[in-house]
Amino acid sequence: MEKKEIRILSRKSDLAQIQAKLVGFEINRKFPNIKIIYLTKKTEGDVDKYSPLSEMKTTGVFTEDLRKNLIEGKCEAIVHSWKDMPIEIEKETMIAGSLRRADERDILLVNKNKINKIKKLKKISILSSSPRRVYNLKDFINDYFPYNCDEVVFNNVRGNIPTRIKKLLNGDGDALIIAKAAIDRLLNNPFKEFKKLSKEIKNYIDQCLWMVVPLSVNPSAPGQGALAIEIKSNDSITKKIIKEISDPLSVTCVTKEREILKKYGGGCHQKIGITFFPTFFGLVKSEKGESESGNKFYDWSVINFNENNNLIAKTDEIFPKNNSEYKFFKRIIIKDSINKLNFLKNHCIWISRKSALPEGALLSSTNIIWASGLKTWKSLSKRGIWVNGCSDSMGEDFNPNISSLCQLPWIKLTHLNSVESLIKNVIYTYELREEENLPDFTNKKYFYWMSSSAFKLSIAKDPRILEAFHACGPGNTFKEIKKMLKDPSKLSVHLSYDQWRSSLINE
Hints:
Layout: E1 5-10, H1 14-30, E2 35-40, H2 44-47, H3 64-71, E3 77-81, E4 93-97, E5 106-111, H4 115-121, E6 123-127, H5 131-144, E7 151-155, H6 161-169, E8 175-179, H7 180-187, H8 195-205, E9 208-213, E10 227-232, H9 236-245, H10 248-264, E11 271-279, E12 282-290, E13 296-302, E14 318-319, E15 329-333, H11 336-342, E16 348-351, E17 368-371, H12 374-382, E18 389-390, E19 410-415, E20 426-434, E21 446-449, H13 452-461, E22 469-472, H14 476-484, E23 491-493, H15 497-504
Parallel strand pairs: 1-2, 1-3, 6-7, 6-8, 14-21, 16-17, 16-19, 17-18, 19-20, 21-22, 22-23
Antiparallel strand pairs: 3-10, 4-10, 5-8, 5-9, 11-12, 12-13, 15-20
């Protein structure tokens, strides 16, 4: 492939330059003889540092000025944050590819010096320039924040990431919501010239409490976390080079997100979040927001895995009919575990369910708390516990992806005799004791399981249910049940009990 050099253009910010260098780095890994020249340019969005993005009339405020240079032949490629790209791209240029996508989620930073004020006033002021984040964060704060906030106020903020965090620490607000991918790239990039900046950002983060906001309640802006590599449409050589470093799955996910956003009209003024992300069981879609006409929508679902989506059931044929019917075990606290937890410091603690953290356990503030899902998170927050994030009920295999924020060892809180899992270090905080009166499975043909322990107990009681259709959430429950079924095609994944029930019954 004959190409001696590639000029890569980006915005002037440190983050934009890091993103451009990440692309250049990957090109040189594949093609070490190609010289990479990095160029920078200010855009309209960089010059106007005060207008809220949602009120700026021009599309492509961070991209159009760069694109002109590409068309004029002043560079061979531009590296954009894909979320900044207009929905419609004119024919002179094209998106040739993307590196593997970084974290799609947002992160909430709260100034530690403002915690007492938040508690006293029951009010929190959050810096954000995104209508999507404002729309999603109000309910999130009410449900998952450990301090009662009767009032949630949002104030506009502009500037690069270091500037925004400085504004937070200087008292412009109590909290700041930003893209986690930006923080990760600033903290964890391989380039020597940005090491001082990385240390500076880490020092800022250490002055904050942080929460990674789950995609199920706060889907990202379409394309967030992904880099769009724009080239001239007729540049076949650069196109081939970019194709060699591009991640097809990331491109597929972002393309799907942008196609949906296009239906809503596009633009950063929209209160719309759309994320597709890959898992071992297929693509998951999170779509949430409010259209300009006032229509609210929400979709949190598996896209391309379930083989039994066309099943139709009667209410009497499903188990459980409701959550209260699902009773298999009493949970008995292991008292010795409380002392172990009280002395536990400097760990990332993965809490498998709300009962896995016994009442009376006083967790050190040196620990990072990670919940298995939203129900567990909500329960812990009501106990005044700061939760840093959750696995969105995806199981332990769903990477928390917080290594840039902390390097602490992981430990899991779960029940005695639980199956071995990804997290090897375990504290057993409770044991399961079988209920005296187990559920009746007569005439049941469709089952939803919330644990593999319940499934094992049930098939021992009534082996006939092995022939039925089964469903569960992802993670260890899915893996264990799949091992025990004669016909794995009769097992499907659903992200919640309610979702499974509604897929079977038209009510």
